[in-house]
Write a structure and sequence with these properties.
By secondary structure, the chain is mainly α. It has a domain of 68 residues. Helix 2 runs antiparallel to helix 3 and helix 3 runs parallel beside helix 5. The longest helix has 17 residues. The radius of gyration is 20 Å and the shape is elongated.
Length: 176
């Protein structure tokens, strides 16, 4: 059995996509878009993974309108798995950036947990809620995402977060 070669070019489309994201120069926006277009051209036009990756390239380069169209195509063609979870985050963020804040909030609220996104849902939902004029709810979402990571004060932090949006849930709380 031979050892894998570390100097070999990526073989599969998935490996080439990973290589793209590890090495892309997003300062060279046109070069990045052209490189992703070449990769996407290897797949059928209705391939949801390819549409998602093209949307990600547009998004990363600041072309949000084009990203939104690619994300919609990926969803329409049946994107699944971790990429669907990532799509919800990326598309929700894009919708927020192009002024479709209510749609972003709706999409991000409906996003199911997935290991590929960790707490990203809370981050982008909090940003969208802030833009939607709901800063207390935004702060609550962000705090609730942080609470499981606290070594102490979880009960207090939970109560304070709840009090941001639930009237009558205020008062002195134990700090343990």
């Amino acid at each position: 059995m031979s050892e894998p070669r570390h100097d070999a070019a990526p073989d599969t489309w998935e490996e080439r996509i990973q290589e793209f994201w590890c090495t892309v120069d997003l300062e060279d926006r046109q070069g990045a878009i052209d490189s992703m277009r070449r990769l996407v051209a290897e797949r059928p036009p209705d391939d949801p993974d390819a549409r998602f990756e093209m949307g990600g390239a547009y998004d990363s380069c600041g072309y949000e309108e084009q990203a939104a169209a690619e994300y919609a195509a990926a969803r329409a063609h049946g994107l699944r798995g971790p990429r669907l979870a990532q799509l919800n985050i990326q598309q929700g963020s894009t919708l927020r950036n192009i002024g479709m804040v209510d749609e972003a909030v709706t999409m991000l609220r409906a996003t199911e947990p997935d290991p590929s996104i960790g707490d990203a849902r809370a981050v982008f939902l909090a940003l969208a809620l802030r833009d939607a004029g709901e800063p207390d709810e935004a702060l609550r979402v962000a705090l609730e995402a942080l609470i499981p990571h606290l070594p102490r004060y979880r009960r207090s932090a939970t109560a304070y977060a709840r009090a941001l949006t639930d009237p009558g849930d205020e008062g002195g709380f134990p700090h343990r």
